[in-house]
Amino acid sequence: MIAKLSGSLDAAGDGWVVVDVGGVGYMVYCSARTLRALPGCGEPVNLAIETHVREDHIHLYGFADGKERDWFGLLQSVQGVGARVALGILSVLSPAVLTQAVVLQEASTLTQASGVGPKLGKRIVSELKDHVPALAVVEGASGGGAASLGDANEGDTSEGPADDAVSALVNLGYRRLEAQAAVAGVTRNLGSGRRVEDLIRHGLQELGR
């Protein structure tokens, strides 16, 4: 199995590249996001690879980093999502945005991708909710950066109000993933800087829906 290719970019097209490794050209299928991140022809390139071996073909799928490759495999674990649809999703949604959509169960985010309708979008977020790290999404002034709960201040290792609210909800009997998703939703809707009591109260409202 090929897991990585390091060489020079020989050619590129719509959804594919050819990587020259020691005089051998490997055709690699890529998402639009990965293609945009690649250098020009003749420049060095490194791709994380997932190899698909079938009776009638061997396909290489390349990614700018390991996170995108991991998501490629995870998406295909959902019924109805093949390599083409998974690449389509990764072409328009970053791993961070995908994590947000699954944690917060926002199926509509997935429908931005070609080939993903409302029904498939709901199936993806539902089936992957227990397989995705519970990263909270806090909308910043720049318009939607992703951050872990309690990471508002870089370098501050103390627990913030969001972490305290999650712990309180877990103590009330909710699963940690559910609690983190609820607090993330409250933070997104109401903004950061809320008191623990407010986060818990509104979090319970989210969980009670």
List the helices and strands and how they pair.
Elements: E1 4-13, E2 16-21, E3 24-30, H1 32-37, E4 44-53, E5 58-63, H2 66-75, H3 83-92, H4 95-103, H5 107-110, H6 118-128, H7 161-171, H8 176-190, H9 196-207
Parallel strand pairs: 3-5
Antiparallel strand pairs: 1-2, 1-4, 2-3, 4-5
End-to-end distance, in Å? 46 Å
Number of domains: 3
- Strand percent estimate: 15-25%
pLDDT < 50 runs, ≥5 residues: 134-158
As a whole number of angstroms, the C-alpha radius of gyration is 20 Å
What general form does the structure show? elongated
Major sheet description: 5 strands, mixed, barrel
- What is the overall pLDDT average? 82
The CATH architecture name of the largest domain reads Orthogonal Bundle
Question: What's the CATH C level of the largest domain?
Answer: Mainly Alpha
Structural class: alpha+beta
According to CATH, what is the topology of the largest domain? Answer: Helicase, Ruva Protein, domain 3
Sheet with most strands: strand arrangement? 1-2-3-5-4
Helix content: 40-55%
Order of helices and strands: EEEHEEHHHHHHHH
Describe the structure.
With 209 residues, the chain is an alpha+beta fold. The chain has three domains: 4-63, Beta Barrel (OB fold (Dihydrolipoamide Acetyltransferase, E2P)); 73-128, 5' to 3' exonuclease, C-terminal subdomain (DNA polymerase, domain 1), CATH 1.10.150.20; 134-209, Ubiquitin-associated (UBA) domain (Helicase, Ruva Protein, domain 3). Helices cover 42% and strands 19% of the residues. The protein has a five-stranded mixed barrel with strand order 1-2-3-5-4. Strand 1 (4-13) and strand 2 (16-21) form a beta hairpin. Helix 2 (66-75) packs across helix 3 (83-92) and helix 7 (161-171) crosses helix 9. The radius of gyration is 20 Å and the shape is elongated.
